[in-house]
Amino acid sequence: MPILRTIQLGYSCDSKILLRNVTLDVEKGEVFALIGPTGAGKTTLLRLLNLLDMPTSGRIYFDEQDAAKSTRLRLEMRRRMGMVFQKPAVFNSRVYENIAYPLKVRSCSRKEIQTRVEEMLEITDLKGYEKRKAQTLSGGEAQRVALARAIIAQPELVLLDEPTANLDPVSVSKIEEVLTRIIHEQKTTVIMATHDMSQGQRMADRIGVLMNGELLQIGSPNDIFCAPRNREVAEFVGVENILSGTVVDKEAALATINIEGGVIEAISEFTVGDEIYAIIRPEDITFRLTKDTSSARNVFEGKITRITTVGPLVRIELDCGFSLLGVVTRKSADELNLSLGQRIYASFKATAVHTVKSWS
Amino acid sequence: MKKIIHCLSFVIALLILVMGVVGCRPQAETPGLGKDIAGTTAFPVVTAKERFKIATTTSLYDTGLWYYLEPMFEKKYNVEMDIVYAGTGIALEYGRRGDVHAVVVHDRAAEDKFIADGYGINRRYFAYNFFIIAGPLSDPAGIKDMPPEDAFKRLAEKGNKNPEKVKFISRGDNSGTHTKEKLIWSKAGFKYEDIQKAGPWYVEAGKGMGPCLLMANEQGAYVLADISTFLAYKGKLNLVPLVEKGEIFLNVYAAIAINPDKIPTAKLQMANNFINWLISDEIQKVIGTYGVAEYGRSLFYPTAGGGCNLPNCPTVDEYSKPVQ
Amino acid sequence: MTELWDAFLQAIQLIVSLDKEVVEIALRSLAISTTAVILASLVCIPIGGLIHFRNFRGKRPLINIIQTFYSVPTVCVGLFVFLFISRAGPLGGLGLLFTPAAVVMGQMVLITPVLMGLTISALSGVDKAIKDSALSSGATEFQAISTIIKEARFAVVAAFIMGFGRAISEVGAAMMLGGNIRGYTRVLTTAISLETQKGELVLALALGIILIALALIVNIIVNLALQRY
């Protein structure tokens, strides 16, 4: 039973449509990541889910109850959730009062508050910070306070809006640590909006891609990153090779696709005549100095048009009748001794090609 | 716990504050006050004693006579006396609105109307003095010892010719003094509107008697003032009395009770006490000697004994018959 | 100009000798203005909060009007209240005119725009994210509003102090509504006015100095209390 369900959720403000037709289910105990570019509507959606704003259309069900029923109900629901905002908003008081706040508004006893706050300080590695004025904390520390504040009332659902954006790597890992811990220990459902692709891949059970207010694709990290549903998603998740073509032959599951400048083979569900995009992740491309005689079906020879070093990786752009982008480790690049203009062979398996319907 | 104690002490302090401001009332209202209705029972004007309010003119107030008389009256009748001062115009307005229980003014025409309209009753004249025209020692207009009307004529003439040297400060506030001034202008043959427009030599100050004297002093101007206020301020002035004699200068002070028939909240009993007290022999003597020690001469003449023998003086009944 | 120095000396002398009448007048000024501020804020802070947090048509114009009334002349306020509480007026039956309570009322009316407007400003200065955090943490609307007011407490207290300053320093309403009755409604400002009228400039200035000293003390106390919380 999904703990959270939205049906055709829409939200507009000042006659601008910010969210459109968002339908999703989130299961209890699931970690759901919401990714998308800035302005896609992630914050808007999270605010609606936290019942801070009312949608202009559609419905939200929390624990199978319609949130639109009454203000009182919404308050009760909100008290079973916690939210961490992108910018840590701490109150102008000490860390202790900040973290204690949710329990204070629920009229908990002083003793209980004290115990729980100490627990939270421990979990978020903020021991000794109780008396500090919250507004003097660094970004990372303040965000931990906000996180502690969000989970102190043991919510069933935690919403996070890019919680680690703008933080240093140490703070990022501390926060992810806490999150992982509560996910494991308390089976808390987590909905997290993030920019950080790898964070999404690492932590999420499922990912939803939100662009221009619409949920374009929901699926496992693998689905999203290897089988993006359309060009927008593909471009966003970093798929570089999107080749337009038509299926000219189909044998069992193997399709032969005519692309501009060449022919490739892919495992695909499409049939002859279908216009498709063939998508290949750069990591799936292998480079050789000599022609490959292994099982790889797709082998192309081409000229290197660009070499870019990105951290520990090297991106190689190849012109083999069509443009192909591959990625290798620095070590491999050194071994291959690559240089601009050099002619090399690129190959990829048929299984590495993901076909999607043409979306023009 | 600490916070509760803080809150409580704050609330208690607040209560004490409010009580202090407003006063508390341990006992019930004193009985037998005739037509009194709202009187002292209303929130939050509650004090231990009854409050009796009068409005008086600034000329009387500035002499300090009331500071002297007030404690005596309060003691005798066990009442708290509230004295509000304003020009005759406003004082009578307070009376009309029932905001005071008696008025003490010195403008016969306005008083007559006030009484005719039914707002005032039991008028008694309890003191009188004279107006003077005071001015700079140099007397640039040369009005010394002239009759009042002629002096005014001269002031207008010289003022128009030489507004830098000859100036006149008028009360300009519908007070008794101002009304008297207007009367003198008219007796001198002028229309008041013309005087008002005459020129920069005529200054409408819109202030009380004392401040007007000070202003005249600053500017070396002429001013019509009652002798008592003038004497009370003498120490601060370089002005001298220039015109002191004239029937028209007679200035009679009257005390009038507010009529309960028209104003239900009037306190006729206490007002009558007040008026009778003012015309009583004892107080008349006090009034007659007020100021001698400090200024060398008394500031007021008591009406008792018929000392006033000008045509406009009040009749015996008007000044000595006790009211009920 | 020697008057200033003389005034300063006289002020010290009046304070040190605890001149009975001056003490009475000063305490009365303090009591009246403090009461006015406290009572006014009981009304202004909730309403200011309401105006700030709710969106409605005419909100901007309303705030403009409130701010316009920061500059209302005190004597006009006095006159306005006078017409209400004079025996001839609608509230005449209460017999409030020429009593300290009337002065409190007048000062309340006077400082209401200031308290309300500055409360709204203070609340506007609080980050919107604070409200979100509060609601998100499970606060009811009322709890969230209280939290925001607490967040804005420094600015709100500044509003108090401003209101107090305007109340204790005004003379128009106190004169009109209190009548400057000796021993009953005379406050520092009306006493200054009377002494000036009587030509006692040095005494008037001395009383003025005492008034400022009073305001300073109140200011210090309030700020100390604020630091503690």
Structural description of this entry:
The complex is a heterotrimer of chains A (360), B (324) and C (229). With 360 residues, chain A is of the alpha+beta class. Chain A is built from 10 helices and 20 strands. In chain A, strands 6-7-8-3-9-10 form a 6-stranded mixed β-sheet, sandwiched between helices. A 5-stranded antiparallel β-sheet of chain A has the order 13-12-11-14-20, with no helix packed on it. A 5-stranded antiparallel β-sheet of chain A has the order 15-19-16-17-18. In chain A, strand 9 (206-211) and strand 10 form a beta hairpin. The two termini of chain A are 37 Å apart. The model of chain A has no long low-confidence stretch (mean pLDDT 88). By secondary structure, chain B is an alpha/beta fold. Chain B has 2 domains: 50-129 and 251-320, Periplasmic binding protein-like II (D-Maltodextrin-Binding Protein, domain 2, 3-Layer(aba) Sandwich); 130-249, Periplasmic binding protein-like II (D-Maltodextrin-Binding Protein, domain 2), CATH 3.40.190. Helices cover 43% and strands 19% of the residues of chain B. In chain B, strands 1, 2, 3, 4, 5, 6, 7, 8, 9 and 10 form a 10-stranded mixed β-sheet that branches. The longest helix of chain B is centred in the N-terminal third of the chain and has 21 residues, at 2-22. The radius of gyration of chain B is 23 Å and the shape is globular. The model of chain B is unreliable at 24-46 (pLDDT under 50). Chain C is mostly helical and 229 residues long. Chain C has a single domain (2-226), classed as MetI-like (MetI-like fold). The radius of gyration of chain C is 20 Å and the shape is globular. Chain C is 78% helix and 0% strand. Chain C has helices spanning 2-16, 20-53, 59-68, 74-85, 100-124, 128-136, 141-151, 153-169, 172-178, 188-197, 201-228. Classes of the chains: A alpha+beta (360), B alpha/beta (324), C mainly alpha (229). The interface between B and C is medium-sized, with 38 and 31 residues.
Quick description:
Chain A is of the alpha+beta class and 360 residues long. Chain A has ten helices and 20 strands.
Name the features:
heterotrimer; B: alpha/beta; D-Maltodextrin-Binding Protein, domain 2; 2 domains; 10-stranded mixed sheet; 10 strands; C: 229 residues; mainly alpha; MetI-like fold; 78% helix
Extended strand count of chain B:
10
Quote the beta fraction of chain B: 15-25%
Helix fraction of chain A by DSSP (H/I, runs of at least 4): 25-40%
Biggest interface between chains: B-C, 38 and 31 residues
CATH homologous superfamily caption of the largest domain in chain B: Periplasmic binding protein-like II
Order of helices and strands of chain A: EEEHEEHEHHHEHEHEEHHEEEEEEEEHEE
The percent range for strand residues of chain A is 35-45%
* End-to-end CA span of chain A: 37 Å
Radius of gyration based on Cα positions of chain A:
25 Å
Helix content of chain B: 40-55%
**SSE topology string of chain B:** HEHHEHEHEHEHHEHEHEEHHHEH
Output the number of helix runs of chain B: 14
